[in-house]
Structure formats: structure tokens, C-alpha cells
Amino acid sequence: MKYNCKVIQDLLPLYTDGICSDVSAQMVEEHLKECASCEKIAKELQDDSVEKTLGKECDHVVLSHEKKVSKKMVTAGSITAAVLLIPVIVCLICNLAIGHALDWFFIVLTALLVVASVTLVPMLVVEKKAVYTVLAFTGTLVLLLFTCCFYTHGNWFFVAAAAVVFGLSVCFAPVVIHGLLSDGRWKRKRAWIVVAWDSFWLYLLLAVCGWFVHGNVTYWRVALGISTYSILLVWGWTAVLCSRNCNRWKKAGILVMLTGVWTGFVTDVVNFLLRDTENGLRYLDLAKGFPLDDPAVFNANMYFMMIAVSVFVGVICLCIGHGRGKSEKTD
């Protein structure tokens, strides 16, 4: 034989895994044609039936473990439901015995439903636990507000419900939208849907508050004006971040300029809506610098410098992004 069997057997594991050099592979192949014992060893190394068996056993163990965990979760959920049912029955009996009619019992019932939404739902739901937990919590909380408002004969339900839904949407709408629209054509539009959803509830909250306090023209002008100017920044950020035609440097430059300009003019916008003329860029006077004894000039110069610096930094980022884009196309 041309090659020593011990040398070839040392190379066989590397040859089987396909990580040896071409020269070594050629040596092994030539030797296997001549040596039956080495060829037998090579076939044994190539036999992956043991690995397949281990893989099947591993899958079986994981599946059985998942079933055990799910059974334990269902058991824990059933116990929790039984525990929550005890105060419901007690309150039902007390309410009927004392008042001979059901009134405050429904407040207790809906309050326990809120507790169940954050305890039972995560235990019983198999997929998308966070999504359904948030939805259940929001729904039961709104139901609790309605029950309390109905029992107290109030007219504040719509204000409270809109405020609660808006606050929860700001925190958890991205989680819910991401879970519900994880596939399909709406996947790339999730950011826009979240911003649109939050905007809708913001304006609905303003409308309900205006109706509740019988808001006059000043209320609507100030509330809608300031809210619209504020939310424009969010829409601008979303448009830039979702853009596919800009690299990271260009997006950073646009965001810096957008935020700086928005911040620089925010005082003027608010003063215009409030009919106030004490501050704003109208008092800009760079020749005076930043005089501490003249707050109006000091603030105006600060706002102008903020706008100028943000535009300067943004232009630098845009130039870098433009250069990076050209180099990437060239490569």
C-alpha cells in the first residue's frame, strides 16, 4: 500500500466531516480503494443512525416536558380560578342578604376579572401570551371603570376609559401590534399602525375631555394645536426610521435636524396658541450674547443656537451618509 493505515485512520474523521485539505482527501480516497479495513472504518464513521436516534429521543423528551409543563399550568390556572371564585360567591351572598339586589357585587366581580386577566390568561394561553394578556387586562379594566361609573351614576366613564386606553396603548401597543401582525403584508407597516393607533386615542381623549368640561374655543385651539405639533415629531421620526432609501447616517442627520428645529420652534408655537408674547425667537439678538438679566433674549438666542447646531450636525451626518452610500455602490 502507498500510505500507512494508521495515518489514514487519523485523517478519516477529518475526511468524513469534510474539513481536511484536498491533498489529504485525495490520499484517503486512494487508500480506501486499496484497504478494506480502512474502508469499513470510514463507512462506520459515515453512519449517522446513532445521531438520528439521539435526535429523536431529544425531541421526544422536549415534547413530553412541554406537555407536563402545560398540564401544570392548566392545573395552576384551575386552582387560581377556584381561589378567585371564593370572594365572588361570598360577595354575591352578602350583597343579596344585605341589599336584596345586586349592585356593588358587580364592582367586585369586574375587579376580580382584572386580577384574572393578569394571572389566569398567561397560564391558560399557549401562544402570544403577552398579546392576549394586555388585551384581556385592557378590556377588564375598562369594564371595571364602566361598572364603577354606572354604580355611582357618574358621567366620567368616557374620559377615564379613553385616558386608560391611550396610556396603555403608548406602552403596550408595539407589543400587541408586533404579535398580531408578525406575518403578511402588514408586517412592514407595524410602526405606522402603532403611531396611527396612538394618535387616534390621543385625539379621542382630547375630544372626550372637551365634551366633559364643555370646552370653549380656547380649549380646542390650545389642546388640538399643541397636541398636533407634538405628534408631528413622532410622525416625522416614524417616516425617517421606516425609510428604505436612507442609510443610518442619513437617518441620523435628518432626525437630528428635525428634532433640533422642532425644539427650537416649540416655544413660539405654544406662545402663538396661548396668545403669549413673552418668549420666542422674536427676541433673537445675537449681539447681546446670553444675558442673564434678559431672559427673553437669552432663551431666543439659545433656541437659535440649538437650531443652528442641529442643522450643522445633521448636514455633517448627511454628507457622511452620502459618502458611505457611494462607496457601498462602488463596492
Short characterization:
With about 325 residues, the protein is mainly α. Helices cover about 80% and strands about 0% of the residues. Among the domains are: about 45 residues; about 90 residues.
Description:
The protein contains 11 helices and no strands. Helix 9 (217-241) packs antiparallel against helix 10. The protein starts with a helix and ends with a helix. Among the domains are: 1-47; 246-331. It is flat, with a radius of gyration of 34 Å. It has 331 residues and is mostly helical. It has helices at 5-17, 22-34, 36-46, 49-99, 105-124, 129-151, 157-180, 190-213, 217-241, 248-274, 295-330.
| Category from helices, strands and their pairing | mainly alpha
Strand content: under 5%
What kind of sheet is the major sheet? none
Regions with little confidence, pLDDT below 50 for 5+ residues:
none
Number of strands: 0
Percent helix, as a range, is over 70%
The global form is flat
**Mean pLDDT reading:** 83
Give the count of helical stretches: 11
Radius of gyration: 34 Å
Distance between the termini: 51 Å
- Series of secondary-structure elements, N-terminal to C-terminal: HHHHHHHHHHH
